[in-house]
Design brief:
By secondary structure, the protein is mostly beta strands. The chain has two domains: 8-92, Sandwich (Immunoglobulin-like), CATH 2.60.40; 97-209, Immunoglobulin-like (Sandwich), CATH 2.60.40.10. It has strands spanning 8-14, 20-22, 26-27, 30-35, 40-41, 46-49, 55-57, 65-67, 71-79, 82-83, 87-92, 97-100, 107-111, 122-128, 131-132, 137-145, 152-155, 159-161, 167-174, 182-189, 202-209. The strands form five sheets. Strands 2, 6, 9, 10 and 11 form a five-stranded mixed β-sheet that branches. Strands 12, 14, 15, 17 and 19 form a five-stranded antiparallel β-sheet that branches. A five-stranded mixed β-sheet has the order 13-21-20-16-18, with no helix packed on it. A hairpin with a 2-residue loop joins strand 9 and strand 10 (82-83). The protein is elongated and about 75 Å long.
Length: 210
C-alpha cells in the first residue's frame, strides 16, 4: 500500500435485512469506499454476482440484485482494481401463507392447580406452495387480560424457527401470581423484509383457571 492516506484502500458493504430475501425479491445493497484514514470518500462502485444462478445483478452501478433461486449467493463490490470480500446473500423460497397447524385449537384453558401449567401447543405453519417452509422465524407476542405485570412466559422463547415441516411451536407457562384471566397470543410469520405473509398474524386465546 502507498503512503497516500487519501487513496481508497477498502470497500465497506452493507446489506438490508442482513442480506436475507425471498425468491423474486430485489436486494439493494450499499457500499462506501474508505481511505487510509478510515474516512468515507466519493467513489464510483460497481457490483457483480459470483453466483448468478442464485442472485443476478441487474444494475451494476446501483447493485440492484434479483433473487433467482433458493440458496446462498455472493455479491462483490469493486472500485477500480480493488474488490471487497465476497458477501453472502441468503435467498429463501417465497412464502405463500401462514396458518394454524393441523389439529391445533385457537382457544385453550389451563388449570394452574395441575402439576403441568403449560398451555397446549400454539403451533403455526409457514407455507411455500403445498409444502411447509423450514427455517423461518415465527414471532410470538402476548397481551395479558387484565393488564398488569407479566405473569406468563413463552416456552421455549418468543421467536421460534419453523422445523423441517414448516411448523413452529410455542407454549404459555405461568411464572408467578397474579393469575391472569386470559392471554391473547399473536403469532406473526414475516418475510425477511418484515412484512406479514397472507394469513399472518394468527391469534390464540389462552384462559387460566385456579
Amino acid at each position: 500500500m502507498g503512503t497516500d492516506l487519501n487513496q481508497v484502500v477498502a470497500i465497506e458493504v452493507f446489506f438490508p435485512d442482513s442480506g436475507r430475501l425471498e425468491v423474486a425479491d430485489t436486494l439493494h445493497p450499499e457500499a462506501r469506499a474508505l481511505n487510509g484514514r478510515g474516512d468515507s470518500v466519493a467513489a464510483e462502485i460497481f457490483w457483480s454476482s459470483l453466483d448468478t444462478a442464485i442472485v443476478t445483478v441487474v444494475d451494476s452501478g446501483t447493485g440492484a440484485t434479483v433473487a433467482k433461486a433458493a440458496g446462498t449467493g455472493r455479491l462483490q463490490a469493486r472500485f477500480g482494481s480493488l474488490r471487497s470480500n465476497p458477501q453472502n446473500v441468503f435467498v429463501f423460497v417465497r412464502l405463500d401463507s401462514a396458518s394454524v397447524a393441523a389439529g391445533v385449537e385457537l382457544r385453550d384453558t389451563v388449570i394452574v392447580s395441575d402439576a403441568d401449567s403449560l398451555s397446549d401447543s400454539l403451533a403455526v405453519k409457514a407455507w411455500a406452495g403445498t409444502s411447509g417452509a423450514p427455517g423461518r422465524p415465527v414471532v410470538y407476542t402476548v397481551t395479558i387480560y387484565p393488564a398488569g405485570d407479566t405473569t406468563v412466559t413463552l416456552v421455549p422463547k418468543a421467536t421460534v424457527q419453523t422445523d423441517a415441516n414448516g411448523i413452529a411451536v410455542a407454549r404459555l407457562k405461568v411464572v408467578r401470581d397474579p393469575l391472569p384471566d386470559s392471554v391473547v397470543v399473536t403469532a406473526a410469520v414475516r418475510r425477511p423484509n418484515g412484512t406479514d405473509v397472507p394469513g399472518s398474524p394468527l391469534r390464540f386465546v389462552v384462559e387460566f383457571q385456579p
